[in-house]
Specification:
Length: 232
């Protein structure tokens, strides 16, 4: 059964308050939607996440069967054998997602925003997709962020960075220290591995489970503003 990619994406866009000179693409977790994570930001902050000069794009993942849910069709960026770093990556669906992300970035470039003024990130599965794309294909992006996410132990990303060292976007990570779905050790291991391969990483923990809180989003906001300063 074939599943479309970009045709199923319906990005929710929060325009910059003033002049749009940069963009942020925020990928949701498994089973969520772009509208869902935008609403989650609003619930945490008491208002929409918004920047003076940065447009935020919240895409929705395509529908596809998801093995950890017994093959049920859901909005997920990729499939996987189980939620564990110990299993092989599902390369076919990871590459499909990279094509989708690449098309979103192309659209931003067509609107006048260069790749070095674009941040890509996400929560949980969205964090994994962002890191995979960022260090495989997005090495001229301004930055990558990953909240409550991880890369598989044998991720293709690590071999790419080993065989093709050079400039990489910085990585900002946040993780709940009581996360039972994605243990913080998985996120830390990803950070250590990427740092050993030349990525500038920052890792912050929070007293939460598999979720986000105000402090985490505040830290992310400050990192985004430092990474994408206003430019006129």
């Amino acid at each position: 059964m074939a599943f479309s990619r970009t045709a199923l994406l319906k990005p929710i866009v929060v325009q910059s308050a003033e002049r749009h000179t940069a963009s942020l693409i925020f990928l949701h977790g498994s089973g969520d939607t772009g509208d869902g994570i935008k609403a989650w930001m609003r619930a945490i902050l008491g208002k929409d996440l918004k920047f003076r000069h940065i447009r935020i794009i919240y895409p929705t993942a395509p529908l596809r069967p998801y093995t950890p849910s017994g093959g049920a069709v859901s909005c997920v960026w990729f499939d996987r054998l189980q939620i564990s770093p110990a299993v092989p990556e599902h390369v076919e669906t990871m590459e499909e997602t990279c094509q989708t992300i690449g098309e979103l970035i192309d659209q931003e470039e067509l609107s006048g925003i260069p790749r070095n003024r674009i941040i890509l990130g996400g929560f949980s599965m969205g964090a994994a997709a962002a890191m995979y794309y960022g260090y495989q294909y997005g090495r001229t992006l301004a930055g990558i962020f990953a909240l409550s996410g991880f890369l598989n132990t044998e991720s293709a990303v690590y071999e790419t960075l080993r065989s093709n060292p050079g400039k990489t976007p910085p990585l900002h990570q946040g993780h709940g220290d009581t996360d039972e779905l994605v243990p913080i050790e998985w996120g830390k291991a990803t950070s250590v591995r990427l740092a050993s391969l030349g990525v500038k990483t920052s890792f912050q923990s929070y007293p939460i489970d598999h979720e986000m809180n105000w402090k985490e989003i505040d830290a992310l906001t400050k990192w985004v503003e430092a990474t994408l300063p206003e430019k006129y």
